[in-house]
Design a protein that fits this description.
Helix content: under 10%
Largest sheet: 5 strands, antiparallel
Structural class: mainly beta
Shape: globular
Oligomer: single chain
Number of helices: 1
Order of helices and strands: EEEHEE
Distance between the termini: 44 Å
Number of strands: 5
Strand order of the largest sheet: 3-2-1-4-5
Length: 137
């Protein structure tokens, strides 16, 4: 028998720390994008809650990709794959957005964390991919 979680409580507005927990590569009306899941990781009532964060690969939205790459500490040169930064610690700013006339939390900014990542080095994501053709812009 299938099962779903009942927890629909929204993430509180404000700044939160989370991990890049999952990525799915998708295509929408404006082209390809990476759909990340950011899992809130802090000792608050929001711990364990998840939020989506989209990174468009469209040249017109390059700022969004750069914002994400800065947040996860990517090198300034080279290329990357969508799953390179799974597990990275980030700081997100959450606001109350509206979608289909319903209020819901959404990430309106993603930043490098201003706290140390205390996980062991072996469990942190790799920081560089050698091939220059792995990102489409």
């Amino acid at each position: 028998m299938s099962e779903i979680q009942n927890d629909r409580a929204a993430v509180s507005p404000g700044f939160h720390y989370g991990r890049v927990a999952e990525v799915v590569e998708k295509t929408g009306p404006k082209g390809e994008y990476w759909q990340y899941t950011i899992a809130i990781e802090e000792e608050t009532k929001d711990a364990g809650k998840e939020l989506p964060y989209r990174v468009s690969l469209s040249p017109d939205a390059r700022w969004k990709a750069l914002e994400f790459l800065d947040a996860v500490g990517a090198p300034e040169e080279g290329s990357t794959k969508s799953d390179t930064y799974l597990g990275a610690l980030v700081k997100v700013h959450v606001i109350e957005g509206t979608y289909n006339d319903k209020t819901r939390p959404e990430i309106d900014g993603i930043f490098a964390p201003d706290i140390p990542d205390t996980r062991p080095a072996a469990s942190k994501p790799p920081k560089l991919v050698e091939s220059a053709d792995e990102i489409p812009f």
